[in-house]
Amino acid sequence: MRSSPEGYARLRVKHELDREVERVALALTVNGERTPLLVPVHKTLLEVLREDMGLTGTKHGCELGECGTCTVLIDGRPELSCLLLPIQIEGRAITTIEGMASGAELHPLQQAFAELGAAQCGYCTPGILLAARSLLEMNATPSRDEIREALAGNLCRCTGYVKILQAVELAAERMHA
Fold it and tell me: Which pTM value belongs to this model?
């Protein structure tokens, strides 16, 4: 029988919350703004963006690098923020969905997604938009297959992807014109 009402497990958890955590001072450039931070060494970029910087557009998904929900751009290339430690990317340019629009003016991809109803629940949309932006910056007129390949790492459970592909094509057409 236990001698205390808390039990052994609860006592350990209580002390675990009080333990010292190694932190590192670094500066991240996110959406063009350099921000100094003091973060625990074990926190992922995803956690730092959401919890420490308040940029909640980047979503928690599988946290295994399989769904693409946490996609951000690192120096213009899509990367999974759930698999990165901030210390790995210090000095590099990070773009989140919050940095995609220009003030109140939507990016052409965001506008096309809204017009065509390419987002349903919207949970996967930030990652898809950023992956598509990277594609269009490298290839102004991608084929449908190139779009599919660029978005292959981003899973959507609500759509059949057709409207997403159409929205990327529409944005490409508008940006190229």
Answer: 0.88
